[in-house]
Amino acid sequence: MSAPLLRVEGLTRRFGGLVAVNKVSFEVQAGEVFTLIGPNGAGKTTVFNLISRLFEPSGGRITLNGQDLLARPAHAVAELGLARTFQNIELFEQASVLQNLLIGRHVHQRRSLWRETLFLPSVREQEREVRRKVEEVIDFLRLQHYRDNRVAGLPYGVRKVVELARALCSEPRLLLLDEPSSGLNVDETRDLAYWIQDIRSVLGITVLMVEHDMSLVSQVSDRVLAMAQGECLALGPPAEVQADARVIEAYLGTGATA
Ligand SMILES: Nc1ncnc2c1ncn2[C@@H]1O[C@H](COP(=O)(O)OP(=O)(O)OP(=O)(O)O)[C@@H](O)[C@H]1O
């Protein structure tokens, strides 16, 4: 097997006396859809926040494409090819869809103040490239109709797609989706499943997801890692993990279903 795109080793995060993530290890292969599941408070979002460098770990290692992610400041992870969406949508609400996507794309660009002030040909070429990529993503996610709308006025389901689009504009190698189906209705969740499958098969982007909707998880995931109380419980194909006795017990303990 080739080297994994993402390797997480012994990842630990404490909040005071609480060990939210306890020596978690897993690998994500390039081209996979890999999903973290587990009852509320299992530590899934904390793992996401550690990988996207929003939190400092208390211990462990994370490498992306062989590079030490923890050696980079949070603002530099996009350059390594990582993009994410959030459980609660994080967009510039008063800006248009297009403006949000342009911002998403600009994190990808190398900036030079003097070049930009002089608006040199290389800067103009870069601007055209930014526009081209953003329009490509708008077409891919069928957002043409909303291009010039202010984000604040859009239905929740559309705003979720805009957030996904914003992440895609940075052309990530690894896309982190934090509960992408939360707040979506049945039709929107079905569309989301198609987007995720296309993001992997058409765009070739590896997906790491946290998700509670087990039918979506089963439909799109190659492998699933179940967590509970900060620890790994089971890892494997979705059906196998859902049938695992330890996983069922962890969910029963919370009244939720796997
Ligand atoms: N910033 C924080 N400060 C203190 N405790 C935190 C913080 N973030 C998370 N925790 C705690 O860490 C534990 C794991 O939380 P986390 O949000 O990672 O779980 P989760 O599996 O994503 O849950 P959910 O499915 O409900 O989103 C919980 O007990 C939570 O209260």
TrEMBL record:
Q: Which PROSITE patterns match?
A: ABC_TRANSPORTER_2
- GO cellular component terms? plasma membrane
**Alphabetical UniProt keywords:** ATP-binding, Cell membrane, Membrane, Nucleotide-binding, Transport
Give the molecular function GO annotations.
Answer: ATP binding; ATP hydrolysis activity
The record's annotation in CDD domains points to: ABC_Mj1267_LivG_branched
* InterPro entries per record: AAA+_ATPase, ABC_AA/LPS_Transport, ABC_transporter-like_ATP-bd, BCA_ABC_TP_C, P-loop_NTPase
Question: What Pfam family does this protein match (any one)?
Answer: ABC_tran
- UniProt KW Cell membrane keyword: yes
**Sequence ranges assigned to domain ABC transporter in this UniProt record:** 6-254
Mind telling me which PANTHER family this protein's record contains? ABC TRANSPORTER ATP-BINDING PROTEIN, CONSERVED COMPONENT OF ABC TRANSPORTER FOR NATURAL AMINO ACIDS-RELATED
Q: What protein name is recorded for this chain?
A: Branched-chain amino acid transport system ATP-binding protein
What is the organism of origin for this protein? Inhella inkyongensis
